[in-house]
From TrEMBL:
Protein name: Aldo/keto reductase
Residues annotated as catalytic: Y52 (proton donor)
CDD domains: AKR_AKR1-5-like
Family label: Belongs to the aldo/keto reductase family.
Domain NADP-dependent oxidoreductase: 19-265
Binding site for substrate: H115
NADP listed as a keyword: yes
Keyword field: NADP, Oxidoreductase
Lineage: Bacteria, Bacillati, Bacillota, Bacilli, Lactobacillales
InterPro entries: AKR, Aldo/ket_reductase_CS, NAD(P)_OxRdtase_dom_sf, NADP_OxRdtase_dom
Length: 301
């Protein structure tokens, strides 16, 4: 439990838990069940997004989990994200944010991230996020999926330095240049897809280390990222895996083994700007919120 309550101090002084549960590609009932299970099992960080289409379920899971664990809202850390299609002027961003608060059933957000740097809108959108932060509705603001070029442009225009840049990060995609740049500006890198799917989990090097330490491949990867001083957002809808993913605090990888995993970097991203129509009209992904058959905004879960 103690490890799950370990935090990083962000550049504005807010303390963010280092290991949290994510709910990407999860329907509302799955989000509710997994979030409640995570909180029951001592997780205190939950990560969602409007694009995931499950903020309603996530909010229901938070409420359920807090009741089951005997905790209060201020005992946990909730992250959500500004949807690509909601980027634009202050009114548009503020209306979207208020709708997200309503869906989650919360009156403030701990960390609000810009999900992607949508061309022609991300600076204006970030200014709107700064105003929400100043109004006290958000404890910290940041970004997600920002390369160094876009981050430089944002820093030139921003009043508030982003607290976090959430990036795809795992053994085969380590974002070395972005990590170095962000660290030099006091921006904490948080890892989405920290397990890297089959390419990382089934890598022979990872499997060999799992045998050596008598741990799962996922535990080896998460421990490696822990020793790299990252924040990790790991997804599972299975309570046994949620528990297993948190069992990384009773061992430590040797420096040699950390370096061995460092050498697995292939620089291969699973998703990037060219996949989105806001960057390339011929790309496959349009602005769309994931829709689940179990979503009914008029009824509580």
């Amino acid at each position: 439990m103690d490890g799950l309550h370990t935090t990083m101090t962000l550049n504005n002084g807010v303390k963010m838990p280092r290991l949290g549960l994510g709910v990407w590609k999860t329907d509302n009932h799955g989000a509710q069940e997994s979030v409640a299970a995570a909180i029951r099992n001592h997780y205190i960080a939950i990560d969602t997004a409007r694009q995931y289409g499950n903020e309603q379920g996530t909010g229901a899971g938070i409420k359920q989990g807090l009741q089951q664990a005997g905790l209060k809202r201020e005992d946990i850390f909730v992250t959500t994200k500004l949807y690509n299609g909601d980027q634009g002027n202050a009114d548009k961003v503020t209306n979207a944010f208020n709708g997200q608060l309503q869906a989650l059933g919360l009156d403030y957000i701990d960390l609000y991230l810009m999900h992607w740097p949508v061309d022609a809108h991300f600076i204006e959108s970030y200014h709107a996020m700064e105003q929400l932060y100043k109004a006290g509705k958000i404890r910290a603001i940041g970004v997600s999926n920002f390369d160094n070029d876009r981050m430089e442009k944002l820093l030139e225009a921003a009043e508030i330095v982003p607290a976090v840049n959430q990036m795809e990060f795992n053994p085969t995609n380590q974002e070395r240049d972005i990590l170095t740049f962000d660290q030099s500006h006091g921006i904490q890198l948080a890892a989405w897809s920290p397990l890297g799917g089959g390419r990382s989990l089934k890598n022979p090097v990872i499997e060999k280390l799992a045998d050596k330490y008598h741990k799962t491949a996922a535990q080896i990867i998460l421990r490696w990222e822990w020793q790299r001083d990252l924040i990790m957002v790991v997804k599972s809808v299975h309570e046994d895996r949620i528990i297993s993913n948190s069992q990384i605090f009773d061992f430590e990888l040797s420096d040699e083994d950390v370096q061995t995993i460092n050498q697995l970097d292939e620089g291969k991203r699973g998703l990037w700007y060219s996949d989105f129509q806001w960057h390339d009209p011929n790309a496959k992904i349009a602005n769309a919120i994931d829709h689940w058959d179990d979503t009914d905004p008029s009824k509580p879960l």
